[in-house]
Specification:
With 143 residues, this protein is mainly α. Helices cover 76% and strands 0% of the residues. The termini are far apart.
Length: 143
């Protein structure tokens, strides 16, 4: 392991300690100071119990910004473990095409539950793009 990885590992371990000590302000300060890619890396490496704390410490907008740095193939389980209301707010904060890409991978019942809770304008934007077939111009547009 090189020095850079060692420093990152130490920083991640310290951040995890702060998170688990339920120091919301200390966690927010350190976490939001990180690049969103590093936030996503930390987020995907911690246990579900720790992610539940992260959801309670961060706004939907902050989580949405971080989620943009998690691969589409890995992201769905995080939305299904979130509270449905919170997940709907995160989807509303994401770019519409990113939200649609994630929702297209989910069961229809789950998608309906998210869209039902979401504010009407955001839900309509997403519904408009959900109707396009994968890999068509309409499916990759941003409203």
């Amino acid at each position: 392991m090189d020095n850079k990885e060692e420093v990152k590992g130490e920083a991640f371990n310290r951040l995890l300690e702060i998170l688990q000590s339920e120091n919301i302000y200390g966690f927010r300060e350190r976490f939001l100071d990180m690049h969103p890619y590093d936030q996503a890396l930390f987020f995907t490496e911690v246990e579900k119990m720790d992610r539940m704390l992260i959801y309670s410490y961060l706004s939907p907008e902050e989580v949405a910004a971080m989620m943009e740095h998690i691969g589409l193939e890995d992201i769905q389980p995080f939305f299904t473990e979130m509270d449905t209301n919170y997940a709907s707010m995160v989807f509303a904060e994401m770019s519409t095409d990113d939200a649609v890409d994630i929702l297209n991978e989910m069961e229809k019942e789950k998608v309906v539950s998210f869209l039902t809770i979401m504010n009407k304008a955001d839900a309509e934007d997403i519904k408009d793009l959900l109707h396009y077939e994968e890999k068509t111009a309409g499916s990759i547009m941003t409203t």
